[in-house]
Amino acid sequence: MTLLEAEIGVEYIIKDIVTEDEEMNAFLFSLGCYSGEPITVISHLKGGCIVSIKDARYNMDTELAKAISI
């Protein structure tokens, strides 16, 4: 399941980051988004979703949200 399919307000654990793009991998890692880390979807938007990672909120577009497996 990806972040786009996640329920709002439920805490999930990131299982994997599925991308071939090293730059995207490095960006997500810098946000604290890596395997084993808890993540919560705050809301779904037309172009992606807003998530909470380590007490910070981020707006992720559809491409980033599809890359995160929970």
TrEMBL record:
UniProt domain Ferrous iron transporter FeoA-like: residue ranges: 1-70
Highest taxon of the lineage: Bacteria
Keyword field: Iron
Lineage: Bacteria, Bacillati, Bacillota, Clostridia, Lachnospirales
SMART domains found in the cross-reference section: FeoA (SM00899)
Entries under InterPro entries matching the protein: Fe-transptr_FeoA-like (IPR007167), FeoA_core_dom (IPR038157), Transcriptional_repressor_C (IPR008988)
This protein's name: Ferrous iron transport protein A
A Pfam family recorded for this sequence: FeoA
